[in-house]
Amino acid sequence: MNYMIISFSLLVSTIGSILVLKRKNNKLLSGLSAFGLNIIILVVATWIFYRGDDEARVFGLGHSGYYILILAIPVITWINLLILQFVKIRK
């Protein structure tokens, strides 16, 4: 389930950052939008899973495996920045 959420976050942030890049023609702003989308999606997913899992509340996030979602934020952002290098901007 974690990998599906990570894949969804990668897809949404890639589409969002490409749209920002095509409209604003600014790679820095596009990278920041990808980072922001990743933070929103993955932190909200972690919070929802944490609230629904009693074992995670008792033993913490380290024993539940939900920390993978938080650790995926910089990796997915880095992948987005690599993808943005191959997007051609038409003027």
Structural class: mainly alpha
Number of helices: 4
Q: Which stretches are poorly predicted, pLDDT < 50 over at least 5 residues?
A: none
Order of helices and strands: HHHH
Biggest β-sheet: count, sense, barrel? none
Rg over alpha carbons = 15 Å
Question: Can you tell me about this structure?
Answer:
The structure is a single chain. This protein is mainly α and 91 residues long. The chain contains four helices and no strands. The chain has helices spanning 2-24, 27-52, 54-59, 67-84. Helix 1 (2-24) packs parallel to helix 4. The chain starts with a helix and ends in a 7-residue tail after the last helix. The model has no long low-confidence stretch (mean pLDDT 91). The chain crosses the membrane at residues 6-21, 28-50, 65-87. Keywords: Membrane, Transmembrane, Transmembrane helix.
Would you kindly provide a brief summary of this structure?
Helices cover 80% and strands 0% of the residues. It has helices at 2-24, 27-52, 54-59, 67-84. The mean pLDDT is 91.
Topology:
Blueprint: H1 2-24, H2 27-52, H3 54-59, H4 67-84
Helix pairs in contact: 1-2, 1-4, 2-4
Transmembrane segments: 6-21, 28-50, 65-87
Keywords: Membrane, Transmembrane, Transmembrane helix
For the structure shown, list the relevant keywords.
4 helices; 91 residues; transmembrane; 0% strand; mainly alpha; 80% helix; elongated; single chain; membrane; transmembrane helix
